[in-house]
Design brief:
Strand content: 5-15%
Structural class: mainly alpha
Shape: elongated
Order of helices and strands: EHEEHHH
Strand order of the largest sheet: 1-3-2
Number of domains: 2
Oligomer: single chain
Radius of gyration: 22 Å
Length: 114
C-alpha cells in the first residue's frame, strides 16, 4: 500500500526537485500527486511499497541535511509576493467580493423593501 514519503505543500521548488532527484538516483519507486487546480488535494511524493518508503525516508533525510547546510535566500515578504502576482491578488479580491455580495444580498433586499 502506498505511503506518503514527503508532503510538497509550502516546499520551495528547489527543495522539491532536489528530493525527487535524490529519490530517483537511489532507485526508490515513488510517484507524485499535485494539489490540483483549486489546491484541495494533497501534493506529495508517495512510496509504492513499505521497503521503498523506508529507503525513501533515509534518502530524504540525507538530502534535507545537505540542503540545510547550503545558504538560503531570504523569504519574500507579503508586499513582494503581491507585487510579483498582482493578477492573483485582483482575482482573489474579486472572488471574495463576489461571495460577500451573494451572501449579503438576501439581507440587503429584505431591508430595502421596508
Amino acid at each position: 500500500m502506498a505511503r506518503i514519503l514527503f508532503r510538497l505543500a509550502n516546499v520551495p521548488e528547489i527543495e522539491a526537485n532536489a528530493v525527487k532527484s535524490a529519490l530517483e538516483q537511489a532507485g526508490v519507486d515513488f510517484y507524485e500527486t499535485s494539489a490540483g487546480r483549486w489546491g484541495l488535494s494533497l501534493a506529495a511524493l508517495w512510496a509504492r511499497t513499505e521497503s521503498d518508503f523506508e529507503r525513501g525516508r533515509e534518502v530524504i533525510d540525507e538530502c534535507q541535511q545537505h540542503l540545510d547546510q547550503l545558504p538560503h535566500e531570504p523569504t519574500a515578504s507579503l508586499g513582494q509576493r503581491l507585487r510579483e502576482r498582482p493578477l492573483e491578488l485582483l482575482l482573489t479580491v474579486l472572488a471574495v467580493l463576489g461571495v460577500l455580495t451573494i451572501s449579503l444580498m438576501p439581507f440587503l433586499n429584505a431591508f430595502a423593501s421596508h
